[in-house]
Amino acid sequence: MSDQSNTPVPEPPDAEAQTRIGVDSWVAESEDRQARKRGFFGPAARGWDASPDPVKLFLFIAVAGTIPFWMNEGDLFVYGLFTVLYATLGLGLNVVVGFAGLLDLGYVAYFGIGAYGYALVSSDHYGIHWPTLASLPAVMVFTGLIGLGLGLTSRRLVGDYFAIVTLFFLQAFLVFTNTANPVIHGIGLTGGSSGIGNLDPLEFFGYSLTSVKQQYYFFLLVLVLATAGLYFANRSRTGRAWRALREDPLAAEVMSIPVNRLKRLAIVMGAALAGLCGAIFAAIQTAVTSSNFTLNVLIFIFAVVILGGIGSIAGPILGAIVINVSFQFLQPQNDHPSIKRWLFYGAIVLFIALMKPWYRAVVVLVGTVAFGLAVHAIVSATAAASWTAGTVTDAGSGSAGKAIADWVVIPNQTLHGGFATYAYIGLVVLVCVVRSVTGWWRTVVLIPTLYMAAVVWENVLAPNPAVTAEILFGVLLIVIMTVRPQGLIGTARVEII
Amino acid sequence: MATPEPKPEPRPLLELAGVSMSFGGLVVIDGLDLVVNEHEIVSVIGPNGAGKTTLFNLITGIYSPTAGEIRLDGESLVGMPPHKIARRGAARTFQTLRLFLNMSVIENVMASQYGQTKVGIARAMLRTPAMRREEREIRARAEEKLAFFGKRLMGYRWDQPAYSLSYANRRRLEIARAMATEPKILLLDEPAAGMNPTETHEITELIGQLRDDGGYTILLIEHDMHVVEGISDRVVALDHGVKIAEGSFDAVATDPRVVEAYLGTKAASTK
Amino acid sequence: MHPLLFSVVDNIRSLGWGGAFQLLRNGLVLGSLYALIALGYTMIYGILKLLNFAHGDVYMVGAFLGYGILTRLNGPLNLAIGIVPAIALMFAVAMAGSGVLGVAIERFAYRPLRNAPRIAPLITAIGVSFFLENSVQLLTNGFQYTYDPFELGKTGNEELGPLYHTVFSVAGNPVTTVQLLVVGSALFLMTALVLLVSRTRFGKSMRATAYDREAASMMGIDTDRVIAMTFFIASMLAGAAGVMFGLYLGVTYYFMGFLAGLKAFTAAVIGGIGSIPGAMLGGLIIGLVESFAIGYVGGQWSDIVIFGLFILFMLFRPRGLLGSRAIQKV
Predict the structure, then answer these.
(1) Complex confidence, ipTM
(2) Residue B263's pLDDT band (boundaries 50, 70, 90)?
(3) Which residues on C lie below 8 Å from B24 (Cβ)?
(4) Containing domain of residue A351, as a range?
């Protein structure tokens, strides 16, 4: 043991390794564990894991780069550009939340400050028209400084206080831009609730980015550069220090890592990236209003990061794709009415199908249908006709709509207004009950719960898709944190209790 | 016994003078004087609650003493934040292990080199040649520190997550991580806790090697008297935050005040 | 900013003493409400070290429950029972309902994350808050529901009217029943809480659990139950505040919890998070600051003024007025 220079570096053990001194069984089985990723997506997951990181990025660029060729402009704007925007925002938030472990609830304010900052230096509002090569960096620096300021106030930079300070900052920002709108040099600084319009488009060396395709490629470039930059940062001493500070801030501090300085660095970088996104976003929209920077947007970005997995770099990109695509798909203006319905019922059937063992799934499926038919029959027979007289929203093809109307109890909305509320509350209570019981009881309670979910969907959720989306975000956050905190692609972490 | 040959007059490396620490009304350390000379191995013993870990916390800057002075190589450490103290040359391990569990073994040892290195995030993102060179150096230094422990933390082990290590290996990793800060003095908080006799023997030898081959000065908290006996140049006994004895192991072990504090004889101390 | 300063001085002068008294009166009422909500925040933080973002929304639900009872009793114009039983019933249902909601939130959203890193329950709390706000928005179609008191005052209808009658005046500035009711109930509830925490055995187990959860459970305290009860009491207080807000200002809407929660949390921090007298003091301060800010600086700046106050505390006294210095045990 003393002549370390001659110690041979041992080979990794093969899968059938006997337990030897110096080799424990957990290590010996590591190869098996890697191979064992099972399930439906097993081969894909294994392939993804095996490929080196530059390949993954290249694949992403290849796929993302070809999208403008087969998508029309309207769709590209909604599904392409916005996805890239949210992915970049998610990347920035991930630096603060994932690397430094700070809950920055004012993150969307940096996005807004970047947008307003750009608006002030690239429009007729004050007649200032900086070239893009100057305005973008300037906005980034300005936003970064604001982040630094906020970081300095939370002296102890303990997560809890920082969360509240930033949330309050967001509120202050919204009030400032929307209502306060102080008059400077003769006109309101922020344009109040109507915001600032007629912004200059992005222009590089005389070349203006005015079409959606151009803007998409530019933003994609920004995303790729940010991803690469953060990837390299993660593998450097700064990245290690961030990860160490996330693991155990006290131990990190004692191991020569200046914790507070690194937290501030993360905040500044996240803020600067958000500011850049804001500036680009404002230029693309050619206008900026405070309605783009509300709490809803903040939750959206959080959902993107959480779904992908806190702390992973590819996570926000995946999260943005999943969430933005589904969200935009369900928007009223991109409406595909009956598809929404099939998505919902499809999700329920998928949920049932994922239950093991298979006979439990069958019991639940059959039971739910039967239960529904029974309830519907009882209600039609005993109560007034108005209880089942309501219409199915977006009925789509006649027979499907009629089938649903015969299964789900949909009362006439005007006569039985309170029904929706009671059904909703009933559903929440039932879900709580399902979570509390186990075994066969859970299967039994699941049946009325699923039926109630359909009732609530038809009566309350489907007619109000915008609010439903927000509710789903809230639920998504709760479910992911309690069930799979590492997100979709994150690896499960070991926490010191 | 691992007493080295007599060296030229001992140079004090760590000096504590009149150090006191209280939390609210509770006095945990009271007027403590302690000197650790260069290349010495000093053990601190005492029953639980005597203030030993608090002492380490004071030296490494986690707490600030309510009175007194702490000097490392002549420079005062009082009021300095822990990360600066680490750079000045005081590194420690923890009684309850505090590894970076989700990071790999080698990353743990690379992370603690932060204070010795200087490439910033800008150069890191651009992957400049200077950054790549420094990364190689960091990695080499980490491998060198891990090699101190023989085969146990080498090779394929480097990329295993720290939580996959056995208990004894985790303790070794923590020592390696502390070594990577290139300290002048190593503060080891119960390094032999929870180890079986073979491992305890290994650790005792290891501490000796740290001083002989590595040239570190070591301040050690330990309950296991076999370790203390086997390795210390000097022993300091604390009880209720006050130094009650100091000297060679035999002198301290037979000191009636120490025996009384422990309520037992040397033979009854924990294995 | 000169014009702003001038307008502030202008306002102070034009409002005079009568105006100042009104602002003081309003501030005390608002402060009582904030104190009640802040108490909930501080209790939950004290016992779980968790910022319960959803607390403000529990307050909002309480307001709606009270409103629901009011309409069940055939509304403000036609009360089926007398005014005093009506109000008592509103309080009872709102408090009980909010309490149950709080316990459910703890049980299903926070308890699974007891041993998770600190950031996890915070994120879940945001999810719960968002879920509650939007659910209520969904179910109420985003309407603002009025408790309709002023209408009564005007038509002279005697059902809820007595609530808004002047009890006494100070230099011509009226103090109404409802204002006294709010401040009085708040004082009553706060006193009851302080007595509970300091004099009863249950209060002792609450304090023990807040101090060191593991040790408390080893001493035979059922920490899960203590935590559930804490959430119940905290949410109950918030529900009461919600009903009172509805009676006082006459409106309930799905978003009222967010801003009130934010300010109440600021109050809890300013008073010293984890300290019950601190929450009461902080609530009072925030209520007064807000009231005077609205009066002297302008409604659109009052939130920013409070934010500024919060930042000042963060910079110079993060532990709040009555909070204790946190000691980290290594």
Answers:
(1) 0.89
(2) low
(3) 327
(4) 339-463
